[in-house]
Amino acid sequence: MTVSTSGPASAALRLPLALMVLGAVVGCDATRDGPNGASTLSVSALPPLGAEFGRVAGLEVGEDGAVYVLDALNTNVTAFAPDGTVLWTFGGRGQGPGEFEQPAALFTGPGDNLWIVDTRTGRLTEIDRSGVLRGSYRGAGPPLVEPVAIGFSPDGLIRAVGLDFSVSLEEPGAVLVEYEVSGETMSPVGHMPLPFVDWPQVYTYRGADVTFMMPVPFDGRPLFGVDRSGRAHYAETDASTIQRLSADGATALSFGRELESVPLGADGRAAELDRSEDVEELLRVAGPAAVEEMASLIPDDGPLLEGLFFDDQGNVWALRPQPRSGEASLRPVDIYDGGGDLVGTVDLPLVADPRPAVRNGMVAGVVRDELGVETVVRFRIVR
């Protein structure tokens, strides 16, 4: 494990065109669907972080405007001051305390400390906001869904959504698990099945000496999230309803706006097939006939939702797909209050994975250019 005060080197940033004219195009689509009307909401762009990342796996924002970035490729966390300068880096590759093999998520815990999830080692690492190691915890339990949905409950238990492959390899069960941290271990103390989860259809090719499985593109897949109060949420990409789950896994609140389905068309299907690494592998191992068979299973309409994330005011942010016309890099985000009422919609050029972070009036997220280069950008919420 290493801690240093020098971070990723500065690099020439290849930003999408939308970011270059962000002040002109990012704004608010005011809505009045809630009983109390919709608040005025817009965002203004802050300078992006002048650093190059391998693959961003998680983001957090501090109360002072600092931004913390988990880089899965470089296996470290980097802290940036509000002015974008590097404060410190933490981590390194390995399996010891403060080291990572496959870091997959970053979230805030008690005392405002940062927690890093390593899905390969099954370890959670706790550091403070100065980059000092506070704890390293191993535990038994089901593998976590990805993108990882994890957080702390009000009584200090870790709450996470996991997979139960004893049900089925192709359609595993989903469980909401609570863990207690003690010493250097975390132990499951609660286990709530989520029987209503709808997994995407899986295409399976079985050849003489190979079996290949892949999710059917655009088929509805589950979205999970745990907010800053430890409340778990569930949605599906092909529906507009969001469910807030109680501690026993039941639905405590259901909300969402009506959204109109958008036909994929031949161009949409072709574009997805062209850029999919799974399709490339299927073509290699099985040939074009198998690709055509899989493509026949793609639904007629595109997804309605792409991701869920949460702010520090108890609001749920539901990220929708890019419109198939107009400004290609911007995605509409619907914002719901704690009671499930829609309070506004704002356009942001952010990807759904990793989840954007919203805290203390700031949004931090990732934009990805046509070459896959990732840049962390920031916005100030204007009310």
Name the assembly state.
Answer: single chain
The biggest beta sheet, please? Answer: 8 strands, mixed
Low-confidence stretches: 1-37
CATH class: Mainly Beta
CATH topology: Neuraminidase
Overall geometry comes to: globular
Number of helices: 5
**Count of beta strands:** 28
CATH architecture: 6 Propeller
- Strands of the widest sheet, in order across it, are 8-9-10-11-15-14-13-12
Average of the residue pLDDT scores? 87
CATH superfamily: TolB, C-terminal domain
Structural category is mainly beta
Number of domains: 1
* Strand residues, percent: 35-45%
Give the distance, in angstroms, between the N- and C-terminal Cα atoms.
42 Å
Percent in helix: under 10%
Please compute the radius of gyration using only Cα atoms. 21 Å
Give structural notes.
By secondary structure, this protein is mainly β. The protein has a single domain (2-382), classed as TolB, C-terminal domain (Neuraminidase). Helices cover 10% and strands 40% of the residues. The chain has 5 helices and 28 strands. It has helices at residues 17-20, 22-25, 265-275, 277-286, 288-295; strands at residues 2-4, 28-29, 42-46, 56-61, 67-71, 76-80, 86-91, 103-108, 114-118, 123-127, 133-139, 150-152, 158-164, 173-182, 185-193, 202-206, 211-215, 222-226, 232-236, 242-245, 251-255, 307-310, 316-319, 331-336, 342-348, 357-359, 362-368, 374-382. The strands form 6 sheets. It has an 8-stranded mixed beta sheet with strand order 8-9-10-11-15-14-13-12, with no helix packed on it. Strands 1-7-6-5-4 form a 5-stranded antiparallel beta sheet, with no helix packed on it. Strands 2-25-24-23-22 form a 5-stranded antiparallel beta sheet, with no helix packed on it. A hairpin with an 8-residue loop joins strand 13 and strand 14 (173-182). Helix 4 (277-286) crosses helix 5 (288-295).
